[in-house]
Amino acid sequence: MTASIPKPILDAVKLADRSWQPVLMQALAEMAQADPGYLPALVEDTYLPTQGRLFAAFMIPLDAVRYVLVGEGPYPREESATGVCFMDGAVKSLWSETGLSKQVNRATSLRNFMKMLLVADGRLQPDNTSGSAVAEIATNALSPASPYIETLTELQANLTRQGFLLLNASLVFRPDVPPVKDARAWQPFMEVVFQALEQHASQHGAPLPTLVLWGKIAEQLHVLPSSGRFPRAVSEHPYNLSFIRNAVMQSLFGPMKLLYKQT
To answer: Which of 34, 49, 45, 48 has its CA nearest to residue 4?
Structure first.
């Protein structure tokens, strides 16, 4: 079956953690069986992420996964699309002297996620999450003795430390293909990933990871046979302002203190 999987896709698998590589190969084989033409057509098209980062989310070892966060798809900008859910590669610093950094404010999902964390932490009021309200927090965050993290790299490290596999419902973005269409093509792949997590939990007597589903495209994974057996936390996609006030997300993420320096 590997003969029907294009070489650029196979090369991308090699960049994933070793524990995931057999799973990814099986998942790609299921995709190829469901739609033999999809992957060959994909590599002939222009898609994001570039630089072989298609499976960058799978750098966390399989046995470290405690949550599977599923967003919609990669950011539609080459520098931003890292292969990791809502981690915008154009973002370096999280803060500026006037509040959140310009790059964070451009990455709408990331901006609203950070504001949700600040509301959950009691640092922002739900009815006032404007830039001026964040400014005082940012001043504290930029001070030498600040307890806050300063970069997106640190935020991603905190999420990984909590056991988050940061996926998207579609692992690719193509400007000429609706994300929901690509996401349907990746469903056989996602089913194998869920099965691997379920099997690992069963073998080790561990609880199943929690599926954290953001938005309507991610919610469509409920059609997969294995997904119904996982605990889940569901919300609107973070690009919606209402995400900031989502009580389910505040309850899930608040205790993790993701904006604080951790060891």
So the answer is: 34
Question: At residue 30, what is the residue type?
Answer: E
Characterise 168 by phi-psi region: left (phi > 0), alpha (psi -120 to 50), beta (else). Answer: beta
The pair of three-digit structure tokens given for residue 4, joined into one six-digit string: 């029907």
Rounded to two decimals, what is the model's pTM?
0.96
Host domain of residue 122 = 93-150+245-263
CB distance 104 to 111 below 8 Å: yes
In a domain, 11, yes or no: yes
Q: Quick one: 160 and 146 in the same domain?
A: no
Span 169-203, pLDDT tens digits: 999 999 999 999 999 999 999 999 999 999 999 99
Q: Are residues 142 and 206 in the same domain?
A: no
Which of 23, 11, 87, 33 has the alpha carbon at shortest distance from 58? 23
Residue 121, SS3 per DSSP: coil
Q: Helix count (H) and strand count (E) of the chain?
A: 11, 6
Structural domains in the chain (count):
2
What does the alpha-carbon distance between residue 157 and residue 160 come to, in Å, rounded to a whole number?
5
